[in-house]
Design goal:
7-stranded mixed beta sheet, globular, 3-stranded antiparallel beta sheet
């Protein structure tokens, strides 16, 4: 299936097809210098498959984890391209999860003021969420995604077969983003989570999730309004994620917890049951002081207030400004620990 992202001169196609990785050269222009960026957690054969199709392919493997979204690793990618004589006619291909995609896209946006970028996401989280929409970034000064650019890929290849190598926790991590968009925008998708077998419906979950994000991004590419709906659960979720220190919880796991206080009482128990079905609900100890500090320093805050998304009826949402401390108060009352 081809999903077309309509963004004028920055439009591109998202190809969702099983085994499309093995046919990447049919969809991507690889007849040039290509920097293939991957990480140590991705099976080596994925990047090698792409590299073998390139006229001149260079694989750059970074360490797995959020630590690679840094100015230092960003600089390493730029240096690799410079050392290998990359020109404006060459390109970057990300083969990995959200960290690889964010890092690679930002490097492509900056090298020679912008060269072509392709994204081949290998995790469910990145296939559903971060691989499309053009947000690229690195972390800086202890703040997540604070330095980056809006830079759209030229094409995205999504191969559900690549999910076979992921463990169940990584699958759950990605499902969090699909549950998120179902709550705000697609009650039929939520029905799949609530009443059907998730694994048997994985392709539909991916496609429905992508179409929701596509529709939002097309209306608000630079997050001036509507695109903030994609931040549902992220204010508290980022606070939890930033308060962890060592990466105890994945991004999607934190967002899942962050959604709970933003749901109305009438639907909250249904949401928790779906999160339990997806292995995303847990009781834990929360460091509310650290979570509060992280929420205040989140890039989406404006002074003492933050724009939050609330869901009182599945498939629809409200956007409103709230005091950060009030948001934390809601979270304290809803999350056990």
């Amino acid at each position: 299936m081809t999903i077309h992202m309509n963004l004028g001169k920055d439009s591109y196609d998202i190809i969702v097809e099983r085994n499309v990785l093995a046919q990447a050269n049919r969809h991507l222009n690889l007849d040039r210098r290509v920097l293939v960026v991957t990480d140590t957690g991705v099976p080596e054969k994925y990047a090698k498959t792409v590299c073998d199709m390139c006229k001149t392919g260079i694989i750059c493997t970074v360490e797995q984890g959020e630590g690679s979204k840094s100015i230092e690793v960003f600089s390493k990618l730029l240096q690799t391209m410079l050392d290998n004589g990359f020109s404006r006619n060459d390109c970057v291909v990300a083969v990995g999860g959200g960290v690889v995609g964010d890092l690679s896209g930002f490097a492509a946006s900056a090298y020679m003021r912008g060269i072509d970028f392709y994204n081949i996401p290998t995790t469910l989280l990145s296939q559903i969420d971060s691989s499309i929409g053009g947000k690229t970034a690195v972390n800086f000064g202890g703040v997540k995604n604070i330095v980056g650019a809006f830079y759209q890929p030229k094409k995205v290849l999504i191969d559900p077969e690549l999910l076979a190598t992921l463990d169940k926790r990584q699958i759950s991590n990605g499902l969090a983003e699909a549950v998120k968009v179902s709550l705000t925008s697609d009650k039929e998708l939520f029905d799949i989570f609530e009443n059907k077998d998730i694994e048997q419906n994985m392709d539909e979950i991916i496609i429905r999730s992508l179409n929701i994000k596509k529709n939002v991004v097309e209306q608000d590419e630079k997050e001036s309004g509507l695109r903030k709906v994609l931040n549902f659960g992220h204010t508290v979720g980022h606070g939890i994620e930033s308060s962890q220190g060592a990466e105890k919880l994945y991004h999607g796991e934190c967002v899942a917890l962050g959604m709970i206080p933003m749901c109305g009482e009438e639907i909250r128990e249904r949401v928790i049951k779906v999160l339990e079905k997806c292995n995303l609900y847990r009781e834990m100890e929360y460091d509310w002081e650290k979570i509060t500090n992280a929420a205040f320093h989140d890039k989406k805050t404006d002074g003492d207030t933050v724009t939050v998304i609330t869901v009182n009826e599945i498939g629809s949402f409200e956007m409103k400004k709230m005091n950060c401390l009030d948001v934390i108060g809601m979270a304290k009352s809803c999350l056990k620990g």
